[in-house]
Design brief:
By secondary structure, the protein is of the alpha/beta class. It has ten helices and five strands; from the N terminus they run αααααααβαββαβαβ. It has two domains: 68 residues, 434 Repressor (Amino-terminal Domain) (Orthogonal Bundle); 124 residues, Rossmann fold, CATH 3.40.50. Helix 9 links the parallel strand 3 and strand 4.
Length: 220
């Protein structure tokens, strides 16, 4: 079973993996032909079309294998770059299948980085809340909007924490420094950004033991 589903009840997983597979295929179809996707996962495009349309449902083990391949971060990076060639960043951030694809890729990374420890809190910038909500719901983590913690005690005692951003700026960095200094029982282990900026390197220096990743190098 993929790491993403390892903590969920088996009966729930069976239905969920099919829904996830359809959403993932729908996302990839925005930027690629079904035949290209099929070549990646070893499935005919006619079968993929039937999966998407609900005319054929693969076994859970088969669905899990396809999902595991398709949520690989490098594939997702390429898909996002292609998406942003013809569409805006706002379209990406409000595209439910695509935000789920990104979220599942992040979750796969999280369960490996946290080595089985629970992700207690997901902190997100306002623009990244849709991606973060997929993650927090699936991992049963608390979700905090980074733009609402100014002057509040919400940053304290968050436990194991992942941060999901679209892009970092000086204000966001200040807020994350606050999380670091005031969070008495808070360990930020992972910071994810959709868009790279020079602030990524600043974040890496502030949180030297934290994995910092991003999807695309510059705004299109």
């Amino acid at each position: 079973m993929s790491e993403v589903y390892s903590t969920l009840p088996p009966k729930y997983v069976e239905s969920l993996v099919y829904i996830d597979l359809v959403d993932i295929l729908t996302a990839y179809r925005r930027v690629s032909r079904l035949s290209t996707i099929g070549n990646i996962i070893g499935v005919r495009d006619t079968s993929l079309s039937k999966y998407i349309n609900g005319k054929l449902r693969p076994r859970s083990a088969r669905s899990l294998a396809m999902i595991k391949t398709l949520i690989d971060m490098n594939l997702v990076k390429n898909a996002v770059s292609e998406y942003l060639r013809d569409r805006s960043l706002i379209e990406l951030l409000t595209d439910i299948p695509f935000t789920k694809l990104i979220a599942l890729s992040i979750m796969e990374r999280l369960v490996k980085l946290f080595h089985g420890s629970r992700v207690e809190t997901v902190i997100a910038s306002s623009e990244a809340l849709l991606i973060a909500s997929h993650i927090s719901h699936r991992l049963r983590s608390s979700l905090i909007n980074l733009h609402t913690v100014r002057g509040s005690s919400k940053v304290r005692n968050l436990g194991n924490t992942a941060v999901i951003l679209v892009i970092a700026d000086d204000e966001i960095i200040k807020q994350l420094v606050k999380v670091k200094t005031e969070g008495r029982r808070t360990t930020v282990k992972y910071i994810f950004l959709v868009i790279y900026s020079k602030e990524v390197d600043i974040l890496a220096s502030i949180f030297p033991n934290t994995t910092v990743e991003y999807l695309v190098g510059t705004l299109p």
